[in-house]
From TrEMBL:
Residue ranges of the region described as Disordered: 1-21
Transmembrane segments: none
Protein name from the UniProt record: MBL fold metallo-hydrolase
Sequence ranges assigned to domain Metallo-beta-lactamase in this UniProt record: 34-264
Signal peptide residues on this chain, from the entry's feature table: none
Pfam families: Lactamase_B
SUPFAM superfamilies per record: Metallo-hydrolase/oxidoreductase (SSF56281)
InterPro entries the UniProt entry points to: Metallo-B-lactamas, RibonucZ/Hydroxyglut_hydro, Sec-metab_biosynth-thioest, WH-like_DNA-bd_sf
Classification via CDD domains: TTHA1429-like_MBL-fold (cd07725)
Length: 354
């Protein structure tokens, strides 16, 4: 995800009307700044859409925000998670402990959570090192992973014990919320089980359009979400996360919500227009990539040559790994479209335009 200038002067809590509030929960040491956690009143108590990063400051902010809304963590009835990332799902376990709330998530992201909890760090480091090697990463980039592996593979992996959800979000179905119509819309791409949640109720300020959409990281007003690979060591199928993402964008564009309530930045109108912008952005990115592929390149070489928010030399280690994953998702898309292919001749893989 591209960093953004977060609006530091925005209030902690915003009343969006019709029993919906947003709470700005800080993400420590992250240019994204905040997660917008949403609070939805229901007939059986308040429900959270996402919870925020597992950090003491975030927890205190969440608690203060709930108090400002006239409720408390103990009163939370349920937690609906848009996707498994730690800035969304991090505090879910603590909220459940304090309140007895249920936690709902799409099955594909629940699988990621289960895998993360059970991950044997050494196997995970092996998987990452192998993947980077096949992508043509230089030895200097892979060496720290091998060193961690040799040291026993302990520690260093964040969010190893995210909470297991106890309810499944089923695409297309209404969630079981007393007095509210909240329908799950499966929007894979950013993660395999990302969901948007469509509040199928008249807009409280009478804006035209179909209700409101909690869009998670799928649709944001000023930044594009990271689209990488799904990173499943056990799955050898050639998934196409960018293709999934573009399909998911069209899906939410067709909903034509009157207002979008995203998990970062700020709420906005004009969903269909934002969808068109993002589709054009990725089309442009793919065209730029195709031009690079006049000569065969490894995913690492492609990442080095792609446009990022700063020069490649200034991109830190961890972000380079993420950038390569993003380059690979775009390369796979081009292959699926029949516009590029993998050259014969082993590893690392090289892609060329056709
Ligand atoms: Zn995310
Ligand atoms: Zn996020």
């Amino acid at each position: 995800m591209t960093p953004t200038t977060d609006d530091a002067s925005a209030p902690l809590v915003r009343d969006h009307g019709g029993g919906v509030h947003s709470l700005r929960v800080p993400i420590p040491d992250n240019p994204l700044g905040h997660t917008l956690v949403h609070l939805l009143d229901t007939g059986r108590g308040p429900v959270l859409v996402d919870t925020g990063w597992d950090d003491p400051t975030a927890w205190d902010t969440l608690s203060a925000g709930l108090a400002a809304c006239g409720t408390s963590v103990a009163e939370i009835h349920g937690v609906v998670i848009t996707h498994h990332h730690p800035d969304h799902h991090g505090l879910s376990g603590r909220v459940r402990e304090a309140s007895g709330a249920w936690i709902a998530m799409h099955a594909a992201d629940a699988t990621v959570v289960r895998r993360t909890r059970e991950a044997e760090p050494r196997l995970w480091l092996d998987y990452l090192a192998g993947k980077l090697e096949r992508a043509g990463a230089p030895e200097a980039h892979i060496a720290p992973l091998r060193a961690a592996r040799a040291a026993g593979g302990s520690g260093g992996l964040p969010g190893l014990r995210p909470a297991l959800p106890d309810r499944e979000i089923v695409p297309g179905e209404l969630l079981d919320l007393a007095g509210r119509r909240l329908r799950a819309v499966w929007t894979p791409g950013h993660t395999p089980g990302h969901v948007c949640l469509h509040l199928e109720e008249t807009h409280p300020a009478g804006r035209t359009g179909n209700g409101r959409l909690f869009s998670g990281d799928h649709l944001l007003p000023g930044i594009t979400p990271h689209i990488g690979l799904y990173e499943d060591p056990d799955d050898t199928t050639m998934t196409d996360p960018l293709g999934d993402y573009l399909d998911s964008l069209e899906r939410v564009g067709r909903l034509a919500p009157a207002e979008v309530l995203p998990a970062h930045q700020h709420s906005f109108t004009g969903a269909a227009e934002r969808v068109r912008e993002l589709l054009a952005h990725h089309e442009q990115r793919l065209a730029g990539l195709l031009a690079l592929l006049a000569e065969p390149l490894t995913p690492w070489q492609v990442a080095e040559r792609m446009e990022w928010n700063r020069p490649w030399e200034q991109i830190p280690y961890g972000s380079r790994t993420i950038a390569v994953s993003e380059a690979e998702s775009h390369l796979r898309r081009l292959v699926k479209l029949g516009r590029a292919e993998v050259t014969a001749g082993g590893e690392p893989a090289r892609y060329v335009a056709v």
